[in-house]
Amino acid sequence: xxxxxxxxxxxxxxxxxxxxxxxxxxxxxxxxxxxxxxxxxxxxxxxxxxxxxxxxxxxxxxxxxxxxxxxxxxxxxxxxxxxxxxxxxxxxxxxx
Length: 96
Description:
Distance between the termini: 40 Å
Largest sheet: 4 strands, antiparallel
Strand content: over 45%
Structural class: mainly beta
Helix content: 10-25%
Strand order of the largest sheet: 3-1-2-4
Radius of gyration: 14 Å
Number of domains: 1
Number of helices: 1
Order of helices and strands: EEHEE
């Protein structure tokens, strides 16, 4: 298996911030082991979905949030020593 660096973009996440629901997007990078880029994207998305930060998503089923890979690159093993944590959030309502 190869090591992959996956840059993810999350869109349309309705989350509670400062006591009010707000539609946010985010970027995050995850390092995964996978057979190919498609499997790397799936593994990285699953890591984020399991994160407790997203267990309180307020979206209705008719308006689901989305997570997709913007960049997938094979990397050397030492690259994957970085933690698989952290998000850079942005306000989607300001970027419409």
